[in-house]
Amino acid sequence: xxxxxxxxxxxxxxxxxxxxxxxxxxxxxxxxxxxxxxxxxxxxxxxxxxxxxxxxxxxxxxxxxxxxxxxxxxxxxxxxxxxxxxxxxxxxxxxxxxxxxxxxxxxxxxxxxxxxxxxxxxxxxxxxxxxxxxxxxxxxxxxxxxxxxxxxxxxxxxxxxxxxxxxxxxxxxxxxxxxxxxxxxxxxxxxxxxxxxxxxxxxxxxxxxxxxxxxxxxxxxxxxxxxxxxxxxxxxxxxxxxxxxxxxxxxxxxxxxxxxxxxxxxxxxxxxxxxxxxxxxxxxxxxxxxxxxxxxxxxxxxxxxxxxxxxxxxxxxxxxxxxxxxxxxxxxxxxxxxxxxxxxxxxxxxxxxxxxxxxxxxxxxxxxxxxxxxxxxxxxxxxxxxxxxxxxxxxxxxxxxxxxxxxxxxxxxxxxxxxxxxxxxxxxxxxxxxxxxxxxxxxxxxxxxxxxxxxxxxxxxxxxxxxxxxxxxxxxxxxxxxxxxxxxxxxxxxxxxxxxxxxxxxxxxxxxxxxxxxxxxxxxxxxxxxxxxxxxxxxxxxxxxxxxxxxxxxxxxxxxxxxxxxxxxxxxxxxxxxxxxxxxxxxxxxxxxxxx
Amino acid sequence: xxxxxxxxxxxxxxxxxxxxxxxxxxxxxxxxxxxxxxxxxxxxxxxxxxxxxxxxxxxxxxxxxxxxxxxxxxxxxxxxxxxxxxxxxxxxxxxxxxxxxxxxxxxxxxxxxxxxxxxxxxxxxxxxxxxxxxxxxxxxxxxxxxxxxxxxxxxxxxxxxxxxxxxxxxxxxxxxxxxxxxxxxxxxxxxxxxxxxxxxxxxxxxxxxxxxxxxxxxxxxxxxxxxxxxxxxxxxxxxxxxxxxxxxxxxxxxxxxxxxxxxxxxxxxxxxxxxxxxxxxxxxxxxxxxxxxxxxxxxxxxxxxxxxxxxxxxxxxxxxxxxxxxxxxxxxxxxxxxxxxxxxxxxxxxxxxxxxxxxxxxxxxxxxxxxxxxxxxxxxxxxxxxxxxxxxxxxxxxxxxxxxxxxxxxxxxxxxxxxxxxxxxxxxxxxxxxxxxxxxxxxxxxxxxxxxxxxxxxxxxxxxxxxxxxxxxxxxxxxxxxxxxxxxxxxxxxxxxxxxxxxxxxxxxxxxxxxxxxxxxxxxxxxxxxxxxxxxxxxxxxxxxxxxxxxxxxxxxxxxxxxxxxxxxxxxxxxxxxxxxxxxxxxxxxxxxxxx
Lengths: 596, 596
Fold this sequence. Notes:
Two copies of one chain form a homodimer. By secondary structure, chain A is α+β, with helices and mostly antiparallel strands.
């Protein structure tokens, strides 16, 4: 049996306490949402996750999706769960009120996404892709398209997809072949074959709105010749009812390692009617609007699965009796002590916990920046928040999914042999988490985005949006009577990050392969420094609360303990990363291709 | 399609070149086996792996084992493959010639095991468990039992199992409940239920010989009251033919994450006839004889799967066209460059390669020690080799399986989305590799064995069997004109290992939880130092060969490149491990149990 209860206390900590001084300021738009109201939303969302989505997670994995004559069936219970999800207004949570959305902050929405992913990541992809499509249509659709599609998508009556990948091209979209031919009436005939389309075909919604990358007849070669089209499964009539089928067919669904309840489709478009989104040949721009939002959400998948794995592991570690504490029997009344007494089991649980809390804290920071970038009235704040989001998007995507996978694996390890069998659902978390390191741009691509695009942009401006708050924090708190040592350790790691940045900037200017060789280690390094920063901030708050005799002192003591573990056991990895980066590309590139 | 060709050149390097100065001396027993003969055996074994076992690996995963009315069926082709395996004499490769074995050195047998695991790890478990059972019967059986069982097991006509785990006890065998009641005729009636029994029931052999841990009526509580029994599925008649069924039934098989073609059985023993192996209540001793051998073999599983993943990834990286080299287009004749040009893809491939070559080199070293411990005529050598094997057994088991899993995951990552679907077989490697970190003692238990039992034994004597050759090597080669830097880096890591050892010895003496808290990081630390040692040795040989203008210079250049990568990118991890160990147990144990 899989377990999951939304970690509401830590979520409230991230939402209300940790980032109060984030420098982005309050947003008038959200003043209507009192903390009590947001807490109530989170509580309700937690119930939805535990009571509606969790119970069909393991069964969905076992049953998987099926295809018969092009019709895709989701596993038992998914249809009903989706109806409840939609009827509860959850599809609309963070969407624009102009189209029926509730307009809640991303800072809440990301916590909501974490819960949904923790309970059922396969399920999460159906509304998740819709949200990405909504963002792209909002950004690039004509008023007619917005009015025709957004209300249905926001309501969740229709769903969305991103149709990018083709058999010969995933990372390198410049190779794509799907073509779009303009018609007299302003629409386009879209023809081609797409693979790996999540939620490409299913039985949860009345219509599916595909956002398809394709080439116009006069398109330049490569990525500069790609346009984006909106192609519905059924063409809507003027009154919003569904008209004829639009030549989109599902040829097959994939047999995957995990997320088996998510239909991953091969879609064929046969002169299907589509409408241009954005400008001709500028589809990559529209795609990245959607993709960047999705990348943060994919990071959240890693976090959600990590939290689910953690909770499962804790329950088992409390319950399973094996051996005796090395410090002497703790439960002489039982035939053996629960395994949570063993240092190595604690090492695993604390690592999982630190990763989850650290990622959640970073996610909360980034989500507030997303909100500020979208809604702040202050141009400087919008710029700075946008810089921070641009920098952190690849970090959130790659760091969270790497750590989520590691955490899911630790969950299995705590269970021993019982983790490897289907019964407890721990191995499903591993299989489900594995894809997040790959889709929406592999984690290697995230690293390349970070060192290749983000570091150098505007002479390092994006980086400053992160470096400034960190260095200010270190300067302000390096002599803290209780936490000075922690802050100084952060300072050392931050120093290594600064040196690594300078090394990459210097070498990478002359030789882009040097930047490429450093990317993955650099992304992890910046991620660990960010995590150190949020843990040190959290520890500061915790110390204050504990000194003030806060009634919730167990929560704050635990926060402090987790921070200490992070600094003792995880942050030292930054030194190894720094040394690896310093070594440069030579030994990475030396081996002759023929010798592999 | 999965790919695998035995890496014969590197295997020959490990077998004939790398460890010539291992200090264990030559063994008269093996003089009959010329290098040419051994190479021919390896070549033939490679063919068996690629041509017989690999083709049924993916299909076996999809089909899995089935159980109907207690009868277990292996997937299509397994029976035929097993027959070919057996008829080819492969079951008998390393077994004692007294019972029909061919008596080849473990140094060859471990390479053979690597091939079998790379091609089909599920299959490997059927003969693998037999080998473990053979070792236990050789060590603890009466002459009658040896004569009745060993020839059949060595021939592979019968197979073996290890029946340890019960629902309430895995790691902590002291909790086991299966009981054995003595009978008048000297046999015992064994009754109880065992779970997670690999190859517990199947259709490959005529009989299955279970080695079962159980308690005698007068047994003291805990692990000091466990005895080992030989319990066949069918009772053999005096003439060796099969007699009646022995009350052993398979109640169920597990649904597992991977190794689906290996039947993992729940076995019920109902007053089944068994014979005592070894002394009453001393079953743990017999069990560990078998278990220690199995632990090294499980490590080899990690290596084998890592090699299979590497080969699959290299083939794809050469074939898949995406993007252009950061250093300028390499293949302007193609629509894009093969992804092997990208630094981050090379980072993954080089990491996989370094792990595989490093583990193979360590395995070769340990295998030679196993041979020397068993067969050397010199008592001092037997002692020293035995010390080295005792120390390295948990390291091989945990390090190789951790790295094998990481390598399998990198294999998926190189494939991107295509790695996550069933088609290429890369995700199967991940699922198959995951169990090796768990069974035959979780990797946390290996770490505890290392720091709790092995470090302190005989005042650190085991450790000296490793430290002496490493420090001698560093001293002898620190000023090497070409590789001095590499050897000095090894010296630094070795220094960290020595300090970590002293820290654990000092703290752990007073507080065993301190040793427990350090275990996993310490095991990785010693493992990386061992890998650094074998890579530096290999590099020395390579430099000599290259300076001598060896006709195989591409092989030696590749060896040197891989060693350089290891020292640049992987060895620095030792510093982080050292810092984590130094931090001690405090933050690991601080969190209140209720606060998790």
